[in-house]
Amino acid sequence: MGSARSDIPPPFAAHKILIAGGFGSGKTTLVGAISEVRPLRTEEVLTSASVGYDDVSGVDAKTTTTVALDFGRITFGSQLVLYLFGLPGQERFSFMWDELSYGALGAVILADVRKLDDCFPSVNYFEKRRLPFVVAINCFDNAPRYDPDEVRTALDLDPGVPLILCDARDVGSVKQVLITLVEAIAARRSGRRRSGRTSVTPGM
Amino acid sequence: MPGGNKWRRRDSGPVVRPYAVTGGRTAPADGEMLDLLAVVVATGLLARTGAGLGGDQSVKLTPEHRRILKLCENPATVADIAADTGLPVGVVRVLLADLTAQGAVTVVRERPPGQQTGNDVLQEILNGLRAL
Which residues 20-49 of B are in CB contact (within 8 Å) with A? Predict the structure, then answer.
């Protein structure tokens, strides 16, 4: 008995890109602009990261909380599927980021210039994990315009991290964000090959 | 817990707690945490009868098992199944482990963990995005 077919080749290749950013930065809009977006429910075990935020007093056993993520899927032909996972932005959900970023190609951090601080947790996280990322400034209609270089300085971004302006509602703009990310991933890989295996520059 | 003695309002979420559909089990029977992008597919063994293998009728499939089995007729990721059924990922993992144990579903391995995606795949994704 058993799974006799478990060594059949995968019917399609599934790849993952994360969409991060603070609450209200436009993650749902971005995922919805380029793919069919559906909520993905996860039951997460509360850890010490959420203690103090979620009331767990009087509960001594393992406790779980339901978190809904934005989840989108883009199918290219029959062989390749790209999945977009919206990371819950609030820092109290950061305990979920490890699982969600496992195996991810890279990440888009959506930034709202009015709430730039909200990006810091994701920037720090992806730098630490050495996951390639781009920062996309979502140009809200009523938000002030800043020079991208000012934003780069404010976020203390490594020069190799692309920073672009986008409109999360516009499919063409979102497409460009994802293309920029995938190009950055490819560039980083070829850079790594050129500089050899001894390159262990922290932070990038 | 605050307000714990009050009835929940209808809009405050499902009345049945998520792990009720697994009989309270929060971990898959085989102890394996399937990756969100692991691809699973029905083997066809239970598709018609819905009964257990080898005439074992004691293993009952719940409506949730059946819904998952139906979705697995075409290869699907764990995340797809969770989104399509509206069940939390943890619950889907438990139910998929039941179906795997019965031989109804098999896991199609993606790639060994940690193995990097090749440049050809990146190029394929770029081409796909540009063609959107």
Answer: 26, 35-37, 39, 41, 43
Task: Tokens 């995340």: give the residue.
Answer: B79
Cβ atoms of A23 and A90 within 8 Å: the answer is: yes
**Closest residue of chain A to B43, computed from CA coordinates:** A5
Domain A13-195 part of CATH 3.40.50.300: yes
pTM: 0.81
Round to whole Å and give the CA distance between A203 and A130. Answer: 7
Q: What is the ipTM of this complex?
A: 0.80
- Return the CA Rg of chain B: 18
Residue B73 lies in a domain: yes
Q: Give per-residue pLDDT as tens, B19-69.
A: 888 888 888 888 888 899 999 999 988 755 544 444 454 467 899 999 999
Nearest-Cα residue of chain B relative to residue A84: B79
Which of A38, A43, A57 lies nearest to residue B18, judging by beta carbons?
A43
Range of the domain at B42: 17-113
Total domain count for chain B? 1
Query: Nearest C-alpha of chain A: how many angstroms from B115?
Result: 9
What kind and span of H or E run contains A124? Answer: helix A120-129
Q: Do A99 and B80 touch (CB under 8 A)?
A: no
Inter-chain touch B36–A64, beta carbons under 8 Å = no
Residue B90 contacts residue A64 (beta carbons within 8 Å): yes
Pull the structure tokens for residue A12. Answer: 């399609």
Domain boundaries, chain A: 13-195
